[in-house]
Specification:
By secondary structure, the chain is mainly alpha-helical. Helices cover 58% and strands 6% of the residues. The protein is built from 22 helices and 8 strands. It has helices spanning 2-7, 18-45, 51-56, 59-67, 79-89, 98-120, 132-149, 151-155, 165-184, 190-205, 233-265, 271-287, 297-305, 312-326, 336-348, 354-362, 364-379, 385-404, 448-461, 480-495, 507-515, 531-540, and strands at 75-76, 294-295, 408-413, 419-421, 434-439, 467-471, 499-503, 526-528. The strands form 2 sheets. The chain has a 6-stranded mixed beta sheet. The protein has a two-stranded antiparallel ribbon with strand order 1-2. A hairpin with a 5-residue loop joins strand 3 and strand 4.
Length: 553
């Protein structure tokens, strides 16, 4: 049974009782009030036919939650993923055309297959390639671009430079109402209320008959599962890079919601299982003729706040969305400007200028990385995925630089009994003829050269040194290059008649050095289990009587 549940995780769901049905369908209805108008608006953002937004919220959402690890996530269209879809396909086809739809379907297939493969092979750790500063810079730039892209729709801007006053009125009033409701009536289904009110007003004044831009007629039929038409190898190659980015970025969206859910329940996040669920959802969406799905943080938050307990709440949401498909004629008179207002409201939360200031105070290097990611994303429009790729490369470069230049300090005894950077704290040496040092990194191929260079330069500048003590507690791993470096160091010190002391060496490091014959006792390497023991022994070499038995390390 356990092995079957591993392949079919929805078998772990509780049986649907009358009480559970009422609870989960009520939570599902709350999410559906937001999901229906959002799905249509996000489809427009992705350049897709509006009905495909509803299709992406049906079967893909069910498949995603049934095979996912986090059962209360709201899977379907999301603003950031739709921005990436639109940016990825720009210049390849005309938005909303049949070729654009085919390309979007293939983009969903490739991204979904990548996520599915990553989940099966347990590669969820690849999520760490995109750091928080990179994601912050990218999302804020993408948010600005999304808002800018909605200005023509919300103002009724025409090619000749004129503005449609009626479109502008619908757009600005809807936007003001949505922001006001978000601030003062956060628990109200404000988006659905604004959509309904705008549809009634639009119908009453004959907005469509006067030339106003409305949603228009939507198909009331369900999608038929089918494979997309073949595309050229050139087009497939152009979609490969964006698909990888969509797979990573959309999963970061899912991760933010999944972590919140699991923290609330006190459970561990099953990132690989969620990768499988997200991948299958994208593939299912492609087979339905729709675009790549993701997880909406806002809808998932509503689901949790509404008391959803299991995946049955998502099933409840899709049942209401299904009703909306057959009731789509009711959306005919909704002005497109209202959809633009919904999109602007959704992405407005991404714009947080103070986050850059806060990051600057925490880490200037990471703040610069976030700023460059932000700038490159804006400058590379419409290929905004270059911003993330550039940010990832900058983040990895900083990581490699940090690994290649580890923190190595000369330590001294602080008055509180701890060992600290003696130059930073202006502390005296433990004894005059001892070089006491500590490296806060792994002793591997990346750090070995800096480690060797530091000691060599110190011994050159301090010819009176008779003892070198390595406080090795922070070193938790050593590789073959590190062992070879220790061998060279021991030979160098032996030739200079300098005694080597090592304190607090960890078992994996000690084991590797012993297997290499470096700690067999023949060459007089002195080991100490604690730093207290090492300092006492070093001070005893000069017969200093100071009692530091109360020293705290």
């Amino acid at each position: 049974m356990n092995s079957l549940q591993a392949w079919l995780p929805f078998l772990k769901w509780p049986r649907l009782s009358a009480q559970l049905f009422r609870q989960e369908w009520l939570a599902g209805f709350s999410v559906a009030l937001l999901m229906v108008p959002q799905s249509v608006a996000y489809a427009a953002l992705a350049g897709m036919p509006l009905v495909t937004g509803l299709y992406a919220a049906l079967l893909p959402a069910v498949v995603g939650v049934m095979w996912g690890g986090s059962t209360r996530l709201s899977i379907g269209p999301s603003a950031l993923t739709c921005v990436l879809i639109s940016a990825s396909l720009a210049g390849m086809a005309q938005p909303a055309s049949s070729h654009w739809v085919h390309l979007a379907v293939w983009l969903a297939l490739i991204a979904g297959a990548l996520q599915l493969l990553m989940g099966i092979m347990r590669y969820g750790w690849l999520l760490n390639l995109i750091s928080s500063p990179v994601m912050m810079g990218f999302t804020q730039a993408a948010g600005l671009l999304v808002m800018a892209s909605q200005l023509p729709a919300i103002t009724g801007w025409q090619a000749g430079g004129s503005v449609q006053v009626s479109d502008l009125a619908f757009g600005l009033i809807s936007l003001a109402s949505l922001f006001a409701a978000k601030k003062w009536l956060p628990k109200w289904p404000s988006i659905m209320l604004v959509v309904a009110a705008s549809a009634v007003i639009s119908y009453a004044i004959g907005f469509a008959e006067q030339g106003g831009t409305v949603i228009g007629a939507l198909p009331t039929s369900l999608p038929e599962l089918s494979l997309p038409p073949l595309i050229t190898w050139t087009e497939l190659g152009m979609l490969a890079g964006p698909a990888v980015l969509i797979a990573l970025v959309s999963f970061l969206e899912a991760a933010s919601s999944a972590k919140t859910e699991n923290q609330k329940d006190g459970t561990l996040w099953q990132e690989n299982q969620d990768l499988i669920g997200q991948g299958l959802a994208k593939i299912t969406s492609a087979l339905c003729g729709s675009f790549a799905t993701s997880t909406s943080f806002s809808r998932s938050a509503i689901s949790l706040a509404s008391g959803a307990k299991t995946g049955w709440a998502v099933i409840g949401t899709t049942s209401f969305v299904l009703l909306a498909v057959f009731a789509s004629p009711a959306l005919f008179h909704v002005p497109r400007a209202v959809l633009a207002a919904i999109v602007i409201l959704a992405v407005s939360s991404l714009i947080q200028p103070k986050a850059f200031v806060k990051l600057w105070h925490i880490s200037r290097i990471e703040a610069i990385t976030a700023g460059l990611t932000f700038a490159i994303t804006l400058l590379s429009t419409p290929r905004i995925y270059w911003g993330v790729l550039a940010g990832v490369l900058m983040g990895l470069s900083h990581f490699l630089h940090t690994r290649l230049h580890p923190r190595i300090i000369e330590v001294g005894l602080h008055e509180d009994g701890s060992l600290r950077d003696r130059h930073l704290w202006q502390l005296p040496a433990i004894t005059s003829d001892v070089l006491a040092l500590r490296m806060d990194a792994e002793l591997d191929f990346a750090a070995a050269s800096s480690f060797e260079k530091y000691i060599t330069e110190k011994l050159r500048d301090l010819p009176h040194i008779q003892h070198v003590c390595l406080f090795a507690q922070p070193i938790n791993r050593i590789d073959a290059t590190g062992v070879e470096t220790m061998q060279q160091l021991r030979k160098q010190l032996t030739q200079a008649h300098i005694q080597l002391h090592i304190s607090g060496i960890k078992l994996p490091v000690e084991k590797a050095l012993r297997l290499a014959g470096e700690l067999d006792g023949k060459d007089g390497v002195k080991l100490y289990r604690t730093d207290i023991e090492a300092v006492n022994a070093l001070r005893a070499l000069q017969a200093l009587p100071d009692d530091i038995s109360g020293m705290a390390i």
